[in-house]
Amino acid sequence: MADQVLPGGAGMPDSWQRLWAPHRMSYLEGENRPIVGNEIKCPFCRIAELDDEEALIVARGKEAYVVMNLYPYNAGHLLVCTNRHVAELPELTDSERNEVQELTAHGMKVLRKVSNASGFNIGINQGGVSGAGIAEHFHQHIVPRWAGDANFMPIIGKTKVIPKLLQESREQLAAGWDQI
Asked: Which of 3, 81, 94, 119 has the largest CB neighbor count within 10 A?
């Protein structure tokens, strides 16, 4: 029975609704990200070489920069990335660690002012098995949170709604960055 397929190839019915995103398969197979067997340059190294608006960079420090996450958990989800291509926290210099934390703290202040964030998830996934999509380049997540942001959609509908476009979030955050 487990190998039965419904008309149209949908598989066995269950309690999960599915949001099909076949465009993600090319990313999973290595498009635009370095994996064993391809010649793709690290996206965080490539982003640092682009114009801020094109790269969705909110702010730059001397040894790190702040960029919008292309696959956000919530509106305003930021990444603080080192300029230098290193994988893990112990590989960072003291000044890189300090700047990452300064940019993170400043990013939190800006998100509070610009979007009235009432809380944050701050996180570092070290290694691919821990969830790092780009494990070879250090980056820290800043995920803004609001009361009620985990409404019925992810809980009942098993779907995440991001209410603001990345470019719009980037413009607001970049404009507010130097005002804090």
From this structure: 81
Q: What CATH number is associated with residue 60?
A: 3.30.428.10
* Residue 139 appears among annotated catalytic residues: yes
Our count of domains for the chain comes to 1
Range of the domain at 44: 24-177
Among residues 77, 106, 137, 139, the one annotated as catalytic is 139
| Cα separation, 55 vs 78, whole angstroms | 13
pTM: predicted TM-score of the whole model, two decimal places? 0.77
90 in a domain, yes or no?
Answer: yes
Per-residue pLDDT of the chain (180 residues; tens, 9 = 90+): 445 555 555 555 566 656 566 655 665 666 666 666 667 789 999 999 999 999 999 999 999 999 999 888 889 999 999 999 999 999 999 999 999 999 999 999 999 999 999 999 999 999 888 888 889 999 999 999 998 777 656 655 667 777 788 899 999 999 999 998
Other beta carbons within 10 Å of 109? 14
DSSP H helices, 32-130, are 43-48, 52-55, 94-115
